[in-house]
Q: What sequence folds into this?
């Protein structure tokens, strides 16, 4: 019998299943406190509105060989205007983690773009240091998460 941790991430897999990705991304929130571990966000300011920010990130991601697995509006009223982008590998798969104790799902390659009061946007991604501490997350996924801030900065530069 495999003993699962009481808190934390117990399962990791790669998926291209749109329904599963939409389910996980549907409750998208910027990375936040999750039990005993801190899932921190790296937040970047964009000089562009939400839609243009998204388009720039999509172009840069594709230029760097990443696929757009899902793109959706955050569903909650509190998230007005927030958009979620889920990136993946060239085979259109993205990493998914399932956590204990409530079977919550996480998408490490999720990018959350939210409007700011001045009409521009703010972009949030997970901090790779958090995922590096999770024993079920492979190093290549941590490396991809670590590369996201640089990818986003490149997209927003010009």
A:
């Amino acid at each position: 019998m495999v003993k699962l941790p009481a808190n934390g991430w117990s399962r990791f897999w790669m998926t291209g299943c749109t329904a599963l990705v939409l389910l996980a991304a549907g409750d998208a929130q910027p990375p936040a406190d999750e039990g005993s571990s801190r899932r921190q966000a790296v937040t970047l300011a964009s000089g562009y509105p939400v839609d243009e920010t998204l388009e720039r990130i999509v172009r840069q991601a594709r230029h760097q060989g990443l696929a757009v697995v899902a793109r959706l509006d955050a569903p909650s009223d509190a998230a007005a205007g927030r958009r979620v982008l889920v990136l993946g590998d060239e085979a259109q798969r993205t990493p998914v983690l399932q956590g204990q104790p409530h079977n919550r799902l996480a998408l490490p390659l999720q990018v959350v773009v939210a409007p700011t009061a001045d009409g521009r946007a703010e972009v949030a991604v997970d901090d790779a240091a958090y995922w590096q501490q999770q024993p079920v997350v492979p190093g290549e996924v941590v490396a991809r998460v670590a590369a996201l801030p640089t990818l986003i900065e490149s997209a927003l530069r010009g």
In short: The CA atoms of residues 128 and 143 lie 7 Å apart.
